[in-house]
């Protein structure tokens, strides 16, 4: 038996080296693919987990929080307080009051709700705020007819005075506001405050209002209102919008882990390319 | 061979550069952060459910039963036309209306009584020293939310004009969730025995029969009763 690689016959050494090269090549390819797969998983997972930093490739910090005075960050399907159980008029007399603690709406009632969107990301986002309503009678969802019969009007304003829904002197019927989709910019590390106003005019279609009140007395006519916020990265990360948050600069997200990963990826790619070149070169020499 | 080696190393170097460049491109292309939140609230339309009920439209009728047991017939007064209601001494009538409901809003109840016409024989006829209105109207409350009242409350009593004047400013406000359950009775009566008024009653009968004419005499009665329950702003 040969004591070392050098003591082996020449032919045996060549074959052993060839096998070793192929093994290294295969290991290299597998390792390369593994690294790339992990990176892509991190990217894809990062898109669906806003709290997760997408660190491996893009190095961006992404966090958009929506909340109000009571809750700084909404959870999924957060229950908020837009409607009240009692309303007073200008003389401070209670004119609408729930008989069972359930929030109410009625002719002459006005509601206002404020919430804030904070873009803690280091990139600008494009955001959209949509409204959705569901009308139920006796616990059963109703169609468009009853939605359109409900004379609630709405207006949505940003802190800077821009109207997402409605205008300065004009509210929009809630059933019509559901299709209003305006997209605005919220800059990196910026916030904006929104005011949602709802109103049921006292002077309106008395017959319709009375009919709705009678329906509710008979079977409970309820309205569910959803405020859906949606934000995605702006094509221009430096885009400006909202009010800057006075926050300290944070260190780069991901840091050394991210760079190590990048380096490993490049080294493995280079080594693989050289291996391929080396093998092809050897093959050509034989020819 | 050396030329071929060089070529391959150049190709290898080029591929490394392409790999580096594509890594950056892939990074920016794939990375697009998206998030969404939803908040919800719900409310019920405040209950109204106020009901106004009127028991028939028979305050006046075209025939009246007798109160005289000595009289063999069943009717003491009967209109010559079934389509025309009549009144006469000794006749009376009433109608009942109710307001029910428990609205979750403050409400105002208004009763408007418009006495369009009232039977009247002007003073100076049949020994009258003042205008004679034979019909006396009474508005009383017979039920409240606790049920039938032991003693109905007389709200107003008098001629049509007096009722109209009394109800002109009748308006009551109720807080949200007040149980509105009131029943009222509007009645009238032409007294059979009315001291010193027999001649006047007779003259009115003759006027409607076409046997007499008196300037300013009115032989018809007509009224409009309007009950409105309105949410208070």
What labels describe this entry?
heterodimer; A: alpha+beta; seven-stranded antiparallel sheet; 15 strands; B: alpha+beta; three-stranded antiparallel sheet; rod-shaped
Walk me through this protein's architecture.
The complex is a heterodimer of chains A (287) and B (233). The two termini of chain A are 33 Å apart. In chain A, the strands form three sheets. In chain A, strands 1, 6, 9, 10, 11, 13 and 15 form a seven-stranded antiparallel β-sheet that branches. Helix content of chain A is 33%, strand content 28%. In chain A, helix 1 packs antiparallel against helix 5 (255-286). Chain A has five helices and 15 strands. Helices cover 21% and strands 39% of the residues of chain B. The radius of gyration of chain B is 41 Å and the shape is rod-shaped. The termini of chain B are far apart. Classes of the chains: A alpha+beta (287), B alpha+beta (233).
In short:
The complex is a heterodimer of chains A (287) and B (233). Chain A has five helices and 15 strands. Chain A is α+β, with helices and mostly antiparallel strands and 287 residues long.
Helix/strand layout:
The complex is a heterodimer of chains A (287) and B (233).
Chain A: H1 10-48, E1 64-67, E2 78-79, E3 86-88, E4 94-97, E5 104-105, E6 110-119, E7 125-137, E8 140-141, H2 144-149, E9 153-158, E10 163-165, E11 172-173, H3 174-177, E12 183-186, E13 190-199, H4 206-219, E14 221-233, E15 243-244, H5 255-286
Antiparallel strand pairs in A: 1-6, 3-4, 6-13, 7-8, 7-12, 7-14, 9-10, 9-11, 9-13, 13-15
Chain B: H1 2-30, E1 34-45, E2 51-54, E3 63-65, E4 75-78, E5 92-101, E6 107-117, E7 135-144, E8 147-158, H2 160-167, E9 171-174, E10 180-190, H3 198-209, E11 222-231
Antiparallel strand pairs in B: 2-5, 3-4, 5-10, 6-9, 6-11, 7-8, 7-10
């Amino acid at each position: 038996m040969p004591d070392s690689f050098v003591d082996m016959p020449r032919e045996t050494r060549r074959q052993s080296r060839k096998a070793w090269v192929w093994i290294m090549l295969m290991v290299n390819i597998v390792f390369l693919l593994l690294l790339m797969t992990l990176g892509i998983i991190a990217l894809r997972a990062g898109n669906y987990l806003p709290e997760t930093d997408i660190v491996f490739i893009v190095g961006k910090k992404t966090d958009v929080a929506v909340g109000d005075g009571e809750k700084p960050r909404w959870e999924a399907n957060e229950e908020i307080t837009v409607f009240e159980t009692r309303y007073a008029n200008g003389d401070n007399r209670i004119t609408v009051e729930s008989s069972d603690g359930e929030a109410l709406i009625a002719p002459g009632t006005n509601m206002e709700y404020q919430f804030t969107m904070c873009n803690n990301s280091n990139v600008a986002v494009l955001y959209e705020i949509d409204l959705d309503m569901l009308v139920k009678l006796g616990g059963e969802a109703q169609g468009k007819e009853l939605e359109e019969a409900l004379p609630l009007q709405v207006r949505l304003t940003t802190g800077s005075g821009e109207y997402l829904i409605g205008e300065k002197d004009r509210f929009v019927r809630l059933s019509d506001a559901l299709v209003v989709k305006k997209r605005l910019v919220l800059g990196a590390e910026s916030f904006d405050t929104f005011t949602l106003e709802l109103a049921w005019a006292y002077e309106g279609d008395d017959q319709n209002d009375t009919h709705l009140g009678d329906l509710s007395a008979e079977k409970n006519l309820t309205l569910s209102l959803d405020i859906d916020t949606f934000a995605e990265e702006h094509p221009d990360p430096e885009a400006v919008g909202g009010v800057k948050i006075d926050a300290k600069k944070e260190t780069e997200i991901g840091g050394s882990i991210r760079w190590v990963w990048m380096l490993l990826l490049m080294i493995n790619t280079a080594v693989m390319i050289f291996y391929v070149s080396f093998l092809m070169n050897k093959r050509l020499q034989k020819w | 061979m050396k030329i071929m080696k060089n070529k391959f190393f150049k190709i290898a170097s080029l591929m490394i550069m392409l790999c580096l460049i594509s890594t950056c491109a892939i990074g920016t292309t794939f990375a697009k952060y998206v998030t969404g939140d939803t908040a919800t609230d719900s409310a019920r339309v405040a209950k109204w459910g106020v009901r106004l009920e009127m028991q028939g439209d028979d305050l006046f009728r075209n025939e009246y039963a007798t109160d005289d047991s000595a009289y063999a017939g069943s009717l003491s007064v009967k209109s010559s036309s079934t389509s025309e209601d009549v009144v006469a001494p000794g006749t009376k009538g009433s109608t009942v209306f109710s307001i029910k409901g428990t609205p979750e809003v403050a409400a105002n109840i208004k009763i408007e009584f418009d006495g369009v016409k009232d039977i009247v024989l002007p003073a100076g006829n049949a020994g009258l020293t003042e205008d004679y209105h034979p019909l006396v109207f009474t508005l009383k409350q017979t039920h409240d939310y606790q049920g039938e009242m032991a003693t109905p409350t007389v709200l107003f009593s008098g001629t049509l004009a007096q009722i109209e004047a009394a109800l002109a400013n009748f308006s009551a406000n109720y807080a949200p969730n007040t149980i509105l359950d009131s029943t009222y009775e509007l009645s009238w009566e032409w007294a059979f025995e009315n001291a010193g008024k027999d001649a006047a009653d007779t003259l009115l009968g003759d006027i409607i029969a076409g046997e007499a004419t008196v300037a300013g005499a009115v032989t018809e009665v007509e009224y409009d009763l309007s009950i409105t329950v309105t949410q208070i702003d």
